[in-house]
Write a structure and sequence with these properties.
2 helices, 0% strand, mainly alpha, rod-shaped
Length: 91
């Protein structure tokens, strides 16, 4: 059964929300990294460990963002095809 336009639009919306959430989390971590980096340079206890955690989380988020972007591109393609099929059916 072909995907309906509303389902395809829903997929795009979900992916856009995931992307926005990942970007917001990346901004938060980048802000924290800035302050933790200074502390790590002063050899404050625990700062280097936290910096490693932040860097790891940012790397994972980067990968997730690339995956979401790829999925979003595909979902957009599917949405366009679905809309075209609907238009062709009503022509």
């Amino acid at each position: 059964m072909p995907l309906r336009v509303s389902e395809a639009e829903g997929d795009v919306l979900i992916l856009q929300r995931r992307r926005s959430a990942a970007l917001e989390r990346a901004r938060e971590l980048a802000d924290e990294r800035q302050s933790v980096t200074a502390a790590a340079q002063r050899y404050e206890v625990g700062a280097r460990a936290r910096l490693s955690e932040i860097n790891q989380a940012l790397a994972v988020l980067d990968s997730e963002l690339r995956n979401v972007d790829a999925a979003l591109s595909e979902a957009g393609r599917v949405l366009a095809l679905t809309e075209k099929e609907r238009t062709d059916e009503h022509a």
